[in-house]
């Protein structure tokens, strides 16, 4: 998933502000050009607040271009900083996507920069639910990866449920309201040397949705007419 213009602009401004903290002026005659670059930075922040983020991306690139030009002629010293991306990990079956799923993924994506979603394998689904999913693992994967909040969707392991966590190396694990105990997950992470991972649970269920109740409703309302 590509970031929308406003998310990109906010990150761009943040990185720019971090970078100019180490700015050193080697030639005082370029101070007016530096001031112009700072004006472009202010403009970018203004456009971000107004929601005109495409224009804001243009003005922030002007600001960076001016400082890069000064750097190339040795008039200033600057090192462009890039904030380490925060990877958020979420997992689930996602069989019959409903508004609760969408809100969970939107919330999970807000916890970091990129949301990686693990979709359960058919084998694991059958083991935990006792019956087959409506959609196969590859169908569920395709549906989840098309949701705009998801940076990447992958299938889980059918052997070790935590194997994929070690592969993704997230900074945050986002849990749904009714997903497994945090203590259980923390113990498993510790056993795999992943103590640094932060676990955040969604504070409440959204709208009382569940795939199981939707399936029951479909059978109740529609199967009798078949």
Automatic annotation (TrEMBL):
Its protein name is: DUF357 domain-containing protein
What Gene3D superfamilies does the database record attribute to this sequence?
AF1782-like, HUPs
Q: Which residues does the UniProt record annotate as the domain DUF357?
A: 11-73
Q: Name one Pfam family in it.
A: DUF357
Q: Which UniProt keywords are present, listed alphabetically? A: Nucleotidyltransferase, Transferase
Q: Which GO terms describe its molecular function?
A: nucleotidyltransferase activity
What organism is this sequence from? Answer: Ignisphaera aggregans
Q: Which residues form the Cytidyltransferase-like domain?
A: 90-216
Q: What InterPro entries does the entry give? A: AF1782-like_sf (IPR036809), Archaeal_FAD_synthase (IPR050385), Cyt_trans-like (IPR004821), DUF357 (IPR023140), Rossmann-like_a/b/a_fold (IPR014729)
């Amino acid at each position: 998933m590509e970031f929308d213009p406003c998310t990109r602009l906010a990150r761009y401004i943040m990185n720019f502000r971090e970078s100019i903290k180490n700015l050193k002026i080697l030639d005082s005659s370029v101070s007016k050009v530096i001031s112009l670059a700072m004006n472009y930075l202010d403009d970018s922040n203004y456009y971000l607040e107004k929601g005109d983020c495409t224009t804001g991306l243009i003005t922030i690139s002007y600001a960076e271009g001016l400082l890069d030009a000064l750097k190339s002629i040795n008039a200033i010293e600057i090192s462009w900083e890039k904030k380490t991306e925060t990877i958020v990990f979420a997992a689930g079956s996602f069989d019959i996507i409903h508004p609760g799923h969408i809100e969970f993924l939107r919330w999970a994506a807000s916890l970091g920069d990129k949301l990686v979603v693990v979709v359960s394998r058919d084998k694991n689904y059958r083991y935990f639910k006792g019956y087959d999913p409506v959609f196969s693992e590859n169908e569920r994967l395709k549906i989840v990866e098309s949701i705009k909040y998801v940076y990447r969707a992958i299938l889980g392991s059918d052997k070790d449920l935590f194997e994929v966590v070690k592969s993704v190396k997230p900074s945050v694990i986002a849990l749904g309201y009714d997903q497994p105990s945090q203590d259980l997950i923390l113990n498993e992470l510790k056993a795999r040397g992943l103590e640094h991972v932060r676990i955040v649970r969604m504070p409440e269920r959204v709208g009382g949705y569940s795939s199981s109740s939707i399936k029951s409703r479909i059978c109740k309302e529609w199967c009798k007419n078949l």
